[in-house]
Amino acid sequence: MSAKNDIALRPRFKINLNEANETVLKRFEDLKGSQSDFSITRIDNHVFIKFPKKDQHFWSPQLHLEIDEVDANTSLLHGLFGPNPTVWTMFMFLHFLVASLFIAFGVWAYTNWSLKSDFVVQTCLMGLMVIVWFALYFAGRIGRDSSKNEMRQLNDVMERVLKQKSPN
């Protein structure tokens, strides 16, 4: 797994597989029934590997794999580490809210400036939105960094399944 991009809050990777996608997907389904350390869900050519509810916390990551068929004997795996989709949606909503407030305060400041009125409060609020945005970004980074061991565990499960050879 090469997830060396330090800016990415949700690391992504790609792996070329020398097997048909259905073969690999079947192995993930087989693992689902033979262990209880991870929750494995398959929907079409998507596989989601998570920790069981009892072991999850706010920053718990999940691994989303999409295994696409290239031809009859090869496939391409797209992987994405990320937080629970509810947490990610909340973060995106907060980023959108901060950006919207920044623009609204900017319009308000410009209006006051063009009316030759005081606009210090609006400018300070715009600065506050920049600080809040940085705080959200660093909170996401801290959450990702606190989950690195769990991300490695999810990655190990994926690699274990990919290294298995199917009986022919």
What's the number of structural domains? 2
Strand content: 15-25%
Largest sheet: 5 strands, antiparallel
Overall pLDDT confidence: 87
**Number of helical stretches of at least 4 residues:** 4
Tell how many strands the DSSP assignment holds.
5
Measure the end-to-end span. Answer: 27 Å
The H-and-E topology, N to C, reads as EHEEEEHHH
Instruction: Give the spatial strand order of the biggest sheet.
Output: 1-5-4-3-2
Topology-level CATH name of the largest domain: TATA-Binding Protein
Poorly predicted residue ranges? 1-5
Structural class: alpha+beta
- Known CATH architecture of the largest domain: 2-Layer Sandwich
Oligomer: single chain
Q: Tell me the name of the CATH class of the largest domain.
A: Alpha Beta
Global shape = elongated
Q: Compute the gyration radius: what is it? A: 22 Å
The level of helicity is 40-55%
According to CATH, the homologous superfamily of the largest domain is Kinase associated domain 1, KA1
